[in-house]
Amino acid sequence: MQSTAMPTAEQHGFRPHSDGPVVPVQTRSERFRSTDVAAFEAVTGREHEWKYSPVAAFADLTSGELDGSRAEVESTPVDGVTHSWIPRDDARIGRAGIPEERASANAWSGFEKALLIEVAGEEAKTATVTRSGLGATPRAAHTVIEAAPNSRGLVVLRGTGDARLSENVEIVVGEGANLTVVSLQEWSDESVHLASHFARIGRDAKLKHIVVSLGGKVVRVNPSTHLAEQGGDIEALGMYFSDAGQHLEQQVFVHHDAPHTRSRVTYKGALQGEGARSVWIGDVLIGNAATGTDSYEQNRNLVLTDGTRADSVPNLEIETGDIEGAGHASATGRFDDEQLFYLQARGIPEDEARRLVVRGFLTEIVQQIGDAELEERLTLALEAELQGS
């Protein structure tokens, strides 16, 4: 017989949680934000933003004191691109976004001066800024990239050598500007790099943001884009190759917050070797004012050997029904046997056939950079990675 008794406090859902009141975040844009590291709890690995990450490997970057002194950078002079160092209280800092997690806040609390990269002029141009040999000391850094209205350019942020680095990168794209930013991780095998990228895109402006992660023991690059004004466009691309014992992670967030904005997110990765790990989380939020939105995100992973793991989590929130379209996709799989058979049937050895398939899978991203010299260099770097597959 069905009971009509009132539920007691011991029944599920009526007993207080052992960790205190738990209120879930209802939408991606409501996450807590602060530039003060003390405002965040210590990282345990159980938090939603850390549950896929090897937090013990970089506890010094989330909780320890960081060296925020100015790190030397190498750059070649380019007409229309300037760089300078600005103080923490400069008004140009904080316009694109502020931290949502402790590592980012620790870097924000610890840096002394920010590197400002300014792009001006309507002609196409490429500027590369390289950091190398930062050493084993835990460091903090902050970079601001600003594209003037109607400007056009490509900025490459390259990291090489040893590093234990937590940083924030702000990208402000002015009205009508067309900017490409490539974040290139070619760190040494034992390096650790945690980065949060914040982008604000102006009216009728376009940003192409490309993350290429090849080197480093733990690399975590999380780009967030705010399509704040009508006609804004973001193309977020990523390519990564995770070897044995390597952890490569990307948490991508696109916030459509204005009418008639567009986003395309495409990340592709390959994994080989025992303990190779990749993490991709894609969040797209279409706000209630973002009518006419056109959005699509996808992640593809190619598993080359046993002992690897690829986590892929696409999320889509829609707060208005008046949109052009929105969708997401995710897939993780092994080689296509038919492709291998086709190549081998034409006299290509199996090892070479495997490399051709992987190269074709990943170079789709590289070919969209828009700089022939950089594309060629990355293709050669990818070929070097594949020699061990």
Automatic annotation (TrEMBL):
<feature type="domain" description="SUF system FeS cluster assembly SufBD core">
    <location>
        <begin position="140"/>
        <end position="361"/>
    </location>
</feature>
<dbReference type="InterPro" id="IPR037284">
    <property type="entry name" value="SUF_FeS_clus_asmbl_SufBD_sf"/>
</dbReference>
<comment type="similarity">
    <text>Belongs to the iron-sulfur cluster assembly SufBD family.</text>
</comment>
<dbReference type="InterPro" id="IPR000825">
    <property type="entry name" value="SUF_FeS_clus_asmbl_SufBD_core"/>
</dbReference>
<feature type="region of interest" description="Disordered">
    <location>
        <begin position="1"/>
        <end position="29"/>
    </location>
</feature>
<dbReference type="InterPro" id="IPR055346">
    <property type="entry name" value="Fe-S_cluster_assembly_SufBD"/>
</dbReference>
<protein>
    <submittedName>
        <fullName>Fe-S cluster assembly protein SufD</fullName>
    </submittedName>
</protein>
<dbReference type="InterPro" id="IPR011542">
    <property type="entry name" value="SUF_FeS_clus_asmbl_SufD"/>
</dbReference>
<dbReference type="Pfam" id="PF01458">
    <property type="entry name" value="SUFBD_core"/>
</dbReference>
